[in-house]
Amino acid sequence: MPAREGTYGLLAEFDTPSDLVRAARQARQDGWRRMDCYTPYPVEEAAEAIGFHRNKVPLLTLIGGLMGLAAMFSMETWVSVIAYPLNIAGRPLYSWPAFIVPAYEWTILFAGLSAAFGMLALNGLPALYHPLFNAPNFRNGATTDKFFLCLEALDPKFDLLEAKKYLESFQPVSVVEVEY
Amino acid sequence: MAHVTHAKTLPADLSAPLFVDAWKTRALMVGLVFSVVAAGLAFADGSVDHVLRAWLLGLMVTFGFAVGGLALLMVQYCTGGKWGLLLRRPLEAMSRTLPLVFIYWVVIALTQKRLYMWANHGIVDDGVRRGLIDSDQLEAINHAISFKAPMLNPTMFVVVGLICFAIWGFYTWRLNSMALTREADTLASTPYWIKKFENLSGPGIVVYALTMSAAAIYWVMSLDPTWYSSVYGLLFLVGQGYAVLALGIIVSISLSKAEPYSTILRQTEQHDLGKMTFAFVMLNIYLAFGQFLIIWSGNLPEEINWYLDRIRGHWGIIITLDLIFHWLIPFTMLLSRDIKRNKKRLIRVCQWMIFARAFDMFWLIEPNFKDAARNLHASWGIFEYVAVPVAMVGFWVAYFCMQLKTRPLVQVNDPHLAEILEPEHATA
Question: Min CA distance, A97 vs chain B (Å)?
Fold first, then answer.
């Protein structure tokens, strides 16, 4: 992919999550779609405000969990019934109660790993570069105490001067232009 | 830029909404109707045996609500957390229903001789005469009864019961009266009260675990004097948490149709309560399955018969349904984030869980009796397991609603109040 040039977007900085959520909600109402919120901790209403849609992590987790369950249970069945049919204290070869615990452990393990790696994959992580880190206030504040709303240049409504004026109407701490 | 607050304000009137009276009337009517049904069934069956067995089930359900509510209240005082503000008053009201549970227990204490083999050897003799107990079983039962006689005898049953009720009564009284004194105090004294409640509740949880284990052993486990399980008390303890959380969610969400709960019930805390309920669903099956796996692996004649009594002779249908009802359904439902955040659906799941807990206890109680062990069969009497507990829970709910109305529903003197009134995005 050739290096992109020009403006990535406009970044508005807020001091409180409430201000961010109100700005984001208004922007979405006014027709903005290519935008994102950046907060130091999860702010669920911000996600809702910018029209957060469902992601596929729960589905990946469920599929991973069921695969773990099926894999372990069938492995135990294969080992005990077909590969090494041992008589253990006179119990039947297919002793399903004893298979439950490892099968359950694998369900949890696979579900957990699928959730973690699925989330990373769907997020596009690991990413080596993100233009937002070009903004010094973002570098310093995004993980501590600042709340950011970024209107991206990809949005059809985006016009540098208009958008800057628009963001300033929310009375943010600052509005900066972010380069690719 | 100055921080603008968007906090909600509490209404001036914090008392329970008027529809709690309607709940009470409805619960009383359910209680009366099902009492009549129970009486009719007893008449059709020609015996009160099943009334008493079902009474024991009703006792365990209402006891779980009252004393389990007390325990969750103590847990909340120790852990803190904003969900406490939602549940504290309902839990206090649950704990104050103890007198009714005591009356329910007195009935069992007076009719021990019709329920427990160790209280009346005539039950064993009758079983032998009817061919329900063979000579091996008779030997085991006689040995167990004589060996456990110092613990399992009618006097000790009453004495231990009275001690347990006295202890629960003490904690109920202390926690309820301290809550009112704290309410009258200033906000500045909060740290003092937090410590005071912690100091009472911490040891209280230990005492609760011991006394409720004693109650579960005396009232239910001793129905089969030959069997024992060290996890039995814990099974009931977790079962109480399961049912009390479900009831607490039902009460909070139902109250949120009007002030003051419509102001304080936020989706965040509702979601938290749903997650906690999910944890109890897991813990419940963990203990129940753990006990089964250990006894199944050991396959010892002293222990395995208890399960065989509950699996063979069509009981296999019940245990399969039990697994589906009280684990699989709540587990799969509560996995979903949407259901935990949806008021109507979460209420449905919680109502189901209370039914499932009662169904589980039916499976625990009925096969103890030799006419039903390894022989699930229909009779008029078996339907008492529906009629009697529903009637008892109906009266209990009416009493609970009465207690709920005696106090303002929101505790004002609590630093969490400000947090719960904030919009949801303001909290981390």
Answer: 6
Which residues are A151's β-sheet partners?
A10, A35
Count how many domains chain B has. 1
Question: In angstroms, rounded to a whole number, what is the distance separating the alpha carbons of residues A44 and B81?
Answer: 19
For A21, other C-beta atoms within 10 Å of its C-beta total 28
Q: Which strand ranges, in their side-by-side order, compose the sheet holding A7-14?
A: A35-38, A147-152, A7-14, A174-179
Residues paired with A152 in a beta bridge = A9
* Residue pair B124/B133 in contact by the 8 Å Cβ criterion: yes
On whether any CB of chain B is under 8 Å from the CB of A97, the answer is yes
pLDDT at position A3: 63
Instruction: Give the one of A41, A89, A97 whose C-beta lies nearest to B292's C-beta.
Output: A97
pTM for the full predicted model:
0.88
Listed range (A160-164, B200-204, B205-209, B412-416) with the worst mean pLDDT: B412-416
Best CA proximity match to B26, nearest among B390, B410, B352:
B390
In a domain, B14, yes or no: no
Q: How many residue pairs from chains A and B have C-beta atoms closer than 8 A?
A: 39
pLDDT bracket for residue A2 (50, 70, 90): low
Query: Considering the domain boundaries, does residue B7 fall inside one?
Result: no
Distance from the Cα of A122 to chain B's closest Cα (Å) equals 19
Q: Please give the DSSP secondary-structure letter assigned to residue A40.
A: S
| Paired tokens of B249 | 């969610």
pLDDT tens across B311-340, in order?
A: 999 999 999 999 999 999 999 999 998 999
Structure tokens at B11: 């209404």
| Contact check, Cβ <8 Å, A43/B425 | yes
CA–CA distance, B420 with B296 (Å, rounded to integer): 48
Does residue B176 contact residue B96 with C-beta atoms inside 8 Å?
yes
Residue B12 lies in a domain: no
3-state helix, strand, coil split of chain A in percent (to 5) is: 50, 15, 35
- On chain A, the residues whose CB falls within 8 A of the CB of B428 are 41-42
Kindly state whether residue B73 falls inside one of the protein's structural domains: yes
Q: Residue B103 burial by CB count (10 A; 0-12/13-18/19+): exposed, middle or buried? A: exposed
What single letter denotes the amino acid at residue B211?
Answer: T
φ/ψ of B415, rounded to 5, equals: -60, -25
The count of other CB atoms within 10 Å of the CB of residue B138 is 14
Do A80 and A95 form a contact (C-beta atoms < 8 A)?
A: yes
Domain carrying residue B165: 19-420
Helix residue ranges per DSSP H, A52-95: 57-77
H or E element, residue B10: none
Partnered with residue A12 across adjacent β-strands are A149, A175
Distances (CA, A) of B279 to B245, B293, B318: 11, 21, 24
Q: Which two tokens stand for residue B347?
A: 């209420």
Answer yes or no: do B337 and A58 touch at CB < 8 A. yes
